[in-house]
Queue: 2 jobs
Job 1
Amino acid sequence: MRALAIKGYNEAPTFIERPIPPVGNSEVLVEVHAASINPLDTKVRKGELKLLLKYNMPLTLGNDFSGIITKVGKDVNKFKVGDEVYGRPRVENMGTFTEYLSVHEEDIALKPKNLTFEEAASIPLVGLTSYQALHDILSIKKGHKILIHAGSGGVGTFAIQLAKEMGAIVATTASDGSDLVKSLGADKVLNYKKEDFEEIIKDYDAVIDSIGGETLEKSFHSVKKGGKIVSISGTPNGRFADNMNLGLFKKILLSLVSSKITKLEKKHDVEYTFLFMQHSGKQLKILSELLETGKIKPIIDRVFTFDKANEALIYSETGKAKGKIILKLKETKRGR
């Protein structure tokens, strides 16, 4: 089967031939119909996550997918051959830019019936990230005020919709995507090229940051005492190392590199969490219900054929996409 892989960090991805993977007792084999491109793919390719994750080369890229089950392991009891599914494989099974994928049954859910494979593939990583940030970490309730950075990006477009569904008042930053984020329910939109959000947004309950750096640091000025900030692009800290059982050496190292953020936490009395999203078929099932009822809709910027995968990755790195970038591996009709 064909897969898009890197043979070393910072190398350009190339198509390689790999054997169809074996299927474990609790796994299913999926014929991949679509996969989505995420900023995480660039971080993996450049080796930015080497401290947290160790991969063998060649490494197939890709972190979420949709497709049809073609084989099931002997202990699988939630799915059957022919089921249309979508998901985010666990870290050790990463690599969805491929024609076939073995994935644990706990990592997938039935594809929402009203979505195409391309639309479904746009959901798992950004959907689970948004759910785990808003529900598991921030515990957003009706009336809470939250700032979601990069509202027109993949995570932003989903998180805005989910936060509104949870009853939150949502502010977001954008440049030229204000019409889009307003249509998704954003109550306040700030043009980050013209406005200093930290001077306008004050005493908010929470922030979701997908940019990191100076944007993350300024976000501490927008959160009230006792508030929370979740970042998927900031620096992991010692608390994260503890939660992930990374060991004493990595805890010390991460504590050192995140010392500036820790000082801001103490100064502003704000809790900072670095989120490394976890696979969860159960949470995907919850999101499926919201998608099937139309309460949340997928936002897709462009769809590329698998042959154009490198072109799609280059486009992703421009940061210009409004919503998700999709790789289409199989020609399929809407619905079945």
Job 2
Amino acid sequence: MQIALWQTRPQPGIDPALSALDQAARAAAQAGADLLVTPEMALGGYNIGAAQVAANAERAGEVAEALSAIARRHGIALTAGLALPSPGARPYNACLAIDATGRELARYHKVQLFGEVDAAQFTPGDALSPVFELAGWKLALAICYDIEFPELARGLALRGAELIVTPTANMVPFSSVNTRLVPARAEENTTCIAYCNYVGAEGAFTYNGLSCACGADGEDIARAPAAEESLLSATFDRAALAQARRAQPYLSARRADLYQGQP
């Protein structure tokens, strides 16, 4: 499966973001990608304040329809970050997975909120991502801080995920997440990871780029630069996935009887 990671600067509002995403989807489809991945909260911005996040969530239905139209127009699947309404006082920090026909495959709400910005803007989700099929692969979703928790990635792998798609808004000075933790999550679970970040500044944050596609052996298949916009292309190979799982049988060798609370 070929994917494209859209490492972009935060777009100033939903409508400019949809326009920029439409252009990225066209370019990714022309390059042969099956799936385009956006950063966290790509449709409207991440560090924009609770009032604006809430206003963006009110447009969620309209945004979802626009995403489906973009997917159909260019014949490419999308995983896109956006605000979705919640039953709580604040919206969800969410991601939608949409196939190339415009059909929604999955939606996920970030469960591990990061710091004061997340706490002020969002309601945490209460469930792991569903595992869904796309282009012959089993995919699951995580958002930014989620992937830094070993239990979350392991839980998705044990549910059958072969690729964890992870929109993020990671910032300076936390580049060790991009370069060390994300490859570790891939290797320790023999599960591929696509990690798509911003570059540039948004409020007090300076984003650190370094979007990456990691194979199930933890090695980079592709990695973007730290400070430049990029439409990063990567191909995940089923034979390589199988080889990694033969070489490091972590999932089958684990002593499940010793780990309470794990499935």
